[in-house]
Amino acid sequence: MMFNFVRWCRNYLRLSVFFIAALVGLQVPGFKDDYGHALRSGAHEISSAMQPFVDDANRFFSGSLQQLLAHYKKSDDPVYAKGGDNLESLIAHEQFLMQALKDFEEHPYLHLLTAPVVNIGEQVWRNYTPQIQLSTEALASSLVFALLVSWTVEASFLLVLLLITRLFRRFVPRRTSDNTSA
């Protein structure tokens, strides 16, 4: 009777874990879409901020931002030289965001797992509202995530059970029947 109750609880726990993981997995495509919009927005914003410098580089240095940067940096005026440092920072940030956007557009999930833009990811996470997209991508994501989590939880449970069984066998002596008579 007790064994049936434990089995029943384990099955419901298994089902609950699968269901919760499926709901979380449904959120992944929505988060990916919001992250992509935020990344595109950040890239567009930095490009807009760079546009006056690009115009100056086109006008005075045949389009070379590096020559414009060098011109700023070799100035004796500390304010002008500091502007060069700011320009260098803008150029580096633009290159970083453009590379991140390229990586995201090629492999969005791989980008999110391996090299997300942290401040954009945190911003999206803070403002994210749960959404359920009933698309093939969302359903596949839900199923894959639910299976991975379920298998991980099940494997962890079995490993703990195996460990407890081995420890029990090691520290609790077996009963032997003493049927030998003298």
Set down the secondary structure blueprint.
Elements: H1 2-60, H2 65-73, H3 78-106, H4 108-114, H5 118-127, H6 136-171
Q: Which keywords apply here?
A:
182 residues; mainly alpha; 6 helices; 82% helix; elongated
Domain module tally: 1
How much of the sequence lies in strands comes to under 5%
Poorly predicted tracts of residues? none
The string of secondary-structure elements, in order, is HHHHHH
- Radius of gyration (CA) equals 29 Å
- The averaged pLDDT comes out at 89
Figure out the total of helices. 6
Which descriptor suits the 3D outline? elongated
| Category by helix and strand content | mainly alpha
Number of strands: 0
Major sheet size, sense and barrel closure? none
Helix content: over 70%
Distance between the termini: 42 Å
Write down the oligomeric state.
single chain
